[in-house]
Amino acid sequence: MTEEIKLTKIAVVRCETVSESCPGTGCFAAFNGKMASFADYGVNAQMVAYFTCGGCSGRRVANLIGEIKKVEPDAIHLSTCMVKSSACPNLVYIKGVFEEAGIKVVEGTH
Ligand code: SF4
Hints:
Elements: E1 8-14, H1 25-32, E2 45-52, H2 59-70, E3 75-78, H3 80-85, H4 91-100, E4 105-107
Parallel strand pairs: 1-2, 1-3, 3-4
């Protein structure tokens, strides 16, 4: 009998504005190497969603929350460009959408 492997499902939301100049390489390098904000995850962690906020005011987050809930992520990370570099003015709102949906929010990616 095959033993079922428990996956840790991770999603990332990132800044639409910053995505014009960043292809997400820092986020993926950190995730694939299980470094920085992903350091506590094991080999069974998988990236199940990676998307941008849709621009100020972060409207896409509310549009996508239904689809994101369907994949039942264990956590959603707010990209480092949102929480550190650009000081997103809509961070509280964006965080709140996920928290109201019962999804654990982690600030930072790499
Ligand atoms: S809402 Fe925040 S994360 Fe989204 S584009 Fe504006 S500053 Fe960037």
